[in-house]
Amino acid sequence: MAVFSASHNLPNSNTTNFTFFKDGATVTNSIRQHYPEASWTDTDFHIFNAADIDANGTNDVEVRWERVDGGGTLTCHERHLTLVKVDSGDIASDSSATSPTTTSTSFVTFGGSDVITVTPGVGPWMGLFSTFTFVGAISPGEDTLPIFAFHTNATENSDSVRGSLHEDSIDSTPISMNTIAFVEPTAGQAVDIRWKAIHESTALTLQCDEREMVLVREAAATGVAPVLRPPLAPYRHTFMR
User: Fold this and answer.
1) What is the pLDDT of residue 201?
2) Is residue 233 assigned to a domain?
3) Domain for residue 183, yes or no?
4) Which of the two residues, 185 and 71, has the higher pLDDT score?
5) Residue 235 falls inside a structural domain
6) Which residues, in sequence order, are CB contacts of 54 under 8 Å at separation 6+?
7) CA neighbor of 38 nearest in space, from 18, 15, 56
8) Which residue from 65, 117, 208, 223 has the fewest beta carbons nearer than 10 Å?
9) Is 170 helix (H, G, I), strand (E, B) or coil?
């Protein structure tokens, strides 16, 4: 499992991608994108990414970034990439690159084949989810708040609810999202990610893009200590403009 977090600074309106790579190839569904508009010049933003990466001691796992549009110099500040070796029976994941949409004000799954769900077995598990969201044109005075949460057996894990606002000055832009949770399914119960939107007055359409949920089994004795192994080697950070 790979986990990455960083703080980055953008001089003007730039869309930036952060992506996992293994041996020089993009890891499927691991692009996380963020865009602050011009009024947020020289403001720091956080990025988070987690992925189930099948690697061994000879694979090179790294994070790369790119500016998709805009101009000027991007700056990445403190950052950390962690690789954790986990036995195959102690990790479960699901990911997708589709772009489902919703206007629902109550929690719903991503729908059909877009659903992010696993049935991992008896817990406890540590869950990590990351994605980026997009809302199109937003009229002045309007906004929408996309909210994500883990669900176990269709029941919301209330401690996992996370949201990030899209308002009219940053319409048609991607915003990075993530959440982490402690989940305890029993035999046969599914763990999934569900989402909803809180609207100012107009029901705006919310879009979710590349996304992944990773579950890592935790020690049953305490319910808090993850069953982790020493980090894989080699690994490195690669930051390119």
Assistant:
1) 84
2) no
3) yes
4) 185
5) no
6) none
7) 15
8) 223
9) helix
47-86 pLDDT, tens digit per residue, is 899 999 998 888 999 999 988 877 777 888 899 999 999 9
**pLDDT digit string, tens, across residues 121-180:** 998 999 999 999 988 888 888 888 899 999 999 999 989 999 888 888 777 778 888 999
Token pair 């950052």 is found at 79
Cα dist from 21 to 17, 43, 54, 149, whole Å: 12, 27, 12, 27
The sheet that has 43-51: what strands, in order across it? 43-51, 2-10, 75-83
Q: What is the count of structural domains for the chain?
A: 1
What tokens were used for 167? 């308002």
Q: What residue type is assigned to position 103 of the chain?
A: T
- Say how many CA atoms lie within 13 Å of 220 toward its Cβ: 6
> What's the token pair of residue 12?
């003007």
Eight-class DSSP state of 79 = E
pLDDT of residue 228: 43
Q: Which of 40-44, 198-202, 203-207 has the lowest mean pLDDT?
A: 40-44
Q: Which tokens go with 2?
A: 């790979």
Please provide residue 134's backbone torsions phi and psi, each rounded to the nearest 5 degrees: -145, 135
Hunting for tokens 């990030």 — which residue is that? 164
| Residue 225 near residue 218, CB atoms below 8 Å | yes
CA 36 from centroid of its chain's CA atoms: 17
* Residues in contact with 26: Cβ distance below 8 Å, sequence separation at least 6, in sequence order: 19, 20
Domain containing residue 206: 2-217
Can you give the pLDDT at residue 36? 61
In a domain, 165, yes or no: yes
